[in-house]
Amino acid sequence: MRGMPHPPGRSPAADALRGSPYSTLLAKMATHRGEIYPLHVGDTWKEAPEGGRPEELGRGIPGINRYTDVWGLPELREAIAARAAARTGTSVARGNVLVTGGATAGLMASIGALVSPGEEILLLAPRWPLVEGHVRMAGATPVEVPLLLGGHSGDLSPESAVAAVEAHATERTVGLYLNTPNNPSGRLIPRASLAALGACAQRRDLWIFADEVYEDYAYAGPHAYAFPFAPERTVAAHSLSKAYGLAGARLGWLVGPEAALSQIVKFGAHTIYSAPTASQHAALRILAGAGDAWVAEARTEYAATGREAARRLGMPAPEGGTFLFLDVADALDERGLMGLLEDVAGEGLFLAPGPSFGPYPTHVRLCYTAVPPDVALRGVDVLARRL
Predict the structure, then answer these.
(1) Are 348 and 357 contacting, i.e. CB atoms less than 8 angstroms apart?
(2) Domain limits of the chain?
(3) 54-290: CATH topology
């Protein structure tokens, strides 16, 4: 007797992706009576810069309803190349720039194009949650490298950074992911450490995936760019979402070696095809100066809110970014982390669980820019009372 056909199933890559551990708590948001403090989401309460919002473009731009080249508008790529060269002090040409549907799509395409099944990618942790899924989608293995601890307790010296990488690298390691300013810890990777990591990647023949979407929000010192230290093997991701409060525009870009981008662009063409045309025109206006004053104001506001939130929680101020990442082990009972998250959700406060960012079972992340400062700080006080 012939066997019955199996029903359609899911791919191993889909099964490897984590579902949200937080969905049951988020359902409480709709029924909560009282003020809500949605500090679990990484976003901004501020409106985007005037003159650079996609909805302002109207009917004045021919072809705004059509695709662009899959690499992006040539004039936008030129503007990005000029910006990158000025900021990094490194030669950057139009061929080194690929416009993407947000940094998320760019990083996914980068890992998909440059990493093979069975290989390993080192993730400097704590790290942005979705990069783990990007690695698994490529059939590769993510390897956590704890380094960027919150509270400034992690040693980010060049020697310690390289030692951490060497301790976790194997013959299957082909890449290193780093994020500075860091989501979620708020740490900045120093320039000397980036130089040492670049030299380590050259010795080991590794790709560097540099996530620099918070580049404009460094408070404790200047942001250091990874690209200049190993430009032949570094793909750096940048974004309108975090820099200019335009997460809904879904526009970012990659800066990297042209040969690598020529492979990465194939993934973009097979997913979103080209980045949103209206958003690309908005980016042209923003990079021409429409966003400068907005960033300066946002940086001042974000830094002040971050300092005050950290003070209320009894921890050091963030060095950059828009997050605080803290260990709440002393406030946990037998229910563990989810018990605390449920308790504060009952008071309207929503936080992101530490395990989403790496091996941190007793940490939580909060975004102090997701709502106006006074609201964010009232939410911080809910957590502070628990601690």
Answers:
(1) no
(2) 13-47+293-386, 54-290
(3) Aspartate Aminotransferase; domain 2 (3.40.640)
Burial of 273 (0-12, 13-18, 19+ CB in 10 A): exposed
Sign of the C-alpha dihedral computed for residues 161, 360, 178 and 380 taken in this order:
negative
Assign a CATH topology to domain 13-47+293-386.
Answer: Aspartate Aminotransferase, domain 1 (3.90.1150)
Task: Compute the distance between CA of residue 271 and CA of residue 63 in angstroms, rounded to an integer.
Answer: 21
Helix (H, G, I), strand (E, B) or coil at 91: coil
Any idea what the Cα angle at residue 116 is, between residues 17 and 260, rounded to 5°?
110
Only one residue has tokens 């998909």, namely 112
Q: Using CA atoms of 357, 261, 233, 243 in order, give the dihedral in degrees to the nearest 10.
A: -50
The CA distance from 354 to 361, in Å, is 6
What's 180-243 look like in SS3? CCCCCCCCCCCHHHHHHHHHHHHHHCCEEEEECCCCCCECCCCCCCCHHHCCCCEEEEEEHHHH
Per-residue confidence of the chain (387 residues) as pLDDT tens digits? 456 666 676 777 777 777 665 666 777 777 878 899 999 999 999 999 987 877 777 667 878 889 999 999 999 999 999 999 999 999 999 999 999 999 999 999 999 999 999 999 999 999 999 999 999 999 999 999 999 874 444 689 999 999 999 999 999 999 999 999 999 999 999 999 999 999 999 999 999 999 999 999 999 999 999 999 999 999 999 999 999 999 988 999 999 999 999 999 999 999 999 999 999 999 999 999 999 999 999 999 999 999 999 999 999 999 999 999 999 999 999 999 999 999 999 999 999 999 999 999 999 999 999 999 999 999 999 999 999
